[in-house]
Amino acid sequence: MEGSRRLRGHSIGVFSEGIGLVLFRWSTLLTAVENEWGGHESRVKADQLASDILSWFTQSKEPLYIDDLEDILDQGMLSLNVEVEDGSIEEVAEKLMVMYEEFLEDNFSSFENFRKANLEHAARPPVPQIVNDDEDDTDEDVGNDENMIVDDNSSNMNPETSTSVANTNSVNRSVNGPLPKVSGEADDGWVVVSNRRNKGRKN
Q1: In the prediction, which pLDDT does 167 show?
Q2: Do the beta carbons of residue 93 and residue 71 sit within 8 Å?
Q3: Which value, in Å, is the radius of gyration of the alpha carbons in the chain?
Q4: Which residues form a coiled coil (predicted)?
Q5: What helix, strand, coil percent values describe the chain, rounded to 5?
Q6: Which residues 6+ apart lie within 8 Å of 19 measured at CB?
Q7: CA angle at residue 111 from 109 to 115, to 5 degrees?
Q8: Neighbours of 58 (CB within 10 A)
C-alpha cells in the first residue's frame, strides 16, 4: 500500500467509528474486557487498542502492511493478558484493511454492513443462557470450569458469542492468573478457550 494514500478530513472520524464496529464484533476481545482479564482498566486498554489502530492507519509514514497491523492487535490482546491462537487476529486485521482500502475509494459498504449488523444485534432480545441441570457432575463435564467453549460458526466475530462465554464459570479466575489461550483446534466448528494450566492435563 502506498504511503501517500491516506484518509482525509471527515473520513478519519467515520473510519474511527468503523474500527470500533469491527472490534465490537470480536468476541475474544469482548470476553477479555467483560471479565477484566487485563485488570480493572481492561476497557481503557481496549479503547487504547482502537486508538493505536487509528493512529497506525492515519499517521504512519511508512507503507501499511497487514503483518504490522496483526502485531498491533496481538500486542493489544497481550495487554489484556490473552494469547490468541484461533486465527481471529488475522481475520480482524483483514476486515480493517479491506475497510480502509474502501474508504480510500469513498466506498463505505463494509462500514455500513458492520453498522447495520451491530444495530440489528442491539435490537435483539438477550440470548437465554443454557444451564446444566446436573450441577454435581462438574468434574466430568466437558468444558466445565476450566475451559470456555466459543461457537466459531461466525469466525469468532459475532458479538453474541461473548454473552454466553461471559456467563460461564471458567471466567471466575484471578486477574493475575495464567494467560488464557484461544485455540482453534476443534474440528466441529467450536473454538476451545483454555488457561495455560490445562496444557499439562491435556497432554
Answers
A1: 37
A2: no
A3: 18
A4: none
A5: 50, 10, 40
A6: 50, 53, 54, 96
A7: 115
A8: 15
Cα–Cα distance, 116 to 108 (Å, whole number): 12
Q: Which of 78, 72, 84 is nearest to 181 (CA)?
A: 84
> pLDDT tens digits, residue range 88-123?
999 999 999 999 999 999 999 999 999 998 887 766
Q: Identity (one letter) of the amino acid at 28?
A: T
Q: Where are the domains of the chain?
A: 10-123, 147-202
Q: How far apart are CA 15 and CA 58, in angstroms?
A: 10
Whole-number Å distance between alpha carbons of 72 and 28: 15
> What is the tens place of the pLDDT at every residue in 183-196?
554 445 444 454 44
The whole-model pTM stands at 0.61
